[in-house]
Amino acid sequence: MSNDNFIDYVKINFRSGNGGAGATSFYRDKLTSKGGPDGGDGGRGGHIILRGNRNFWTLLSLKYRKHIFAENGVNGGKQNKTGKSGKDIIVDVPLGTIAYDENADKMLEILNHAEEKILLEGGKGGLGNWHFKSASNQNPEYHQKGLEGLDQWIVLELKVLADVGLVGLPNAGKSTLVSKLTAAKPKIADYPFTTLTPNLGIVQLSNYRSFVIADIPGIIEGAHQGKGLGHRFLRHIERNSVLLYVIPSDSEDIITELNILENELNKFSTELALKDKLLVISKSDFLDDELKLWLTDQLNTINIPWLFVSSFTKENLASLKEELWKIIQ
Questions:
Q1: For residue range 243-266, what is the model confidence (pLDDT) as tens digits?
Q2: Of the candidates 88, 81, 89, 15, which has an alpha carbon nearest to the alpha carbon of residue 42?
Q3: Which residue from 328, 285, 305, 329 is spatially nearest to 245, judged by alpha carbons?
Q4: CATH entry 3.40.50.300 includes domain 1-158
């Protein structure tokens, strides 16, 4: 998926339909010149509804839709006929979509396939005059207007749903690791910020087990303040059940790099500090036995489980899959 096609934020003017007005009418036929009230009710205005669609991975389909309006309800008619309701507008969105109102307050979120939630309710139809007949008023000559629909600018934001999120500084080898663990084919090159969009892949294990892994674009120091790719992709990590830190074996200081990652995530969201984490030292094929022993002594001082892995030799890749599965469960 190209960077141009990965859309995770849109702002749209949504408007639900107005309710139809009730009718003022009196029954008339060849034999009845002055019948009782028979004005029908107005129809409900159309709702705006969000529906989860697991086949959507992005908000691209909404990128150029700045206005989405539902139909108004039809006015009530004679002979107690209720006006037709306005047609609901159903907007398909990827799983993990959150809607925010103009005050940045969360309205709803969509997490499941085919899940439908009303974003904006249509206006209620007005009552016809037959509702107002009473012993003291046999022929009411008034009806209710329909209620107006809601008109709001709403932000839809996507937070990628994945079981495991890969977190690392630029060029840590995350994309290569994803390509070896899954059938995904992320862009891979030897320069910073190769990954500009989250890449998702499905990790297959024995006995029909599987989980979703996401390669999140590289984090830099100050990302929580918006530096680099900043908040745009840090928010996707909030959805992950497990965070997989990836630090290359040729890092100048693995412990310092780990502390940078922990610090950026914790400053962005205190909830991230509570997530399960696993550290992998990538490119382990670059290490000789003596250097591995030295790094092992260092890594045994941290409070996060860790593994040496190599995408090239496939060292510990099977063990990594099983370890992640155990944590997810």
A1: 999 999 988 899 999 998 888 888
A2: 81
A3: 305
A4: no
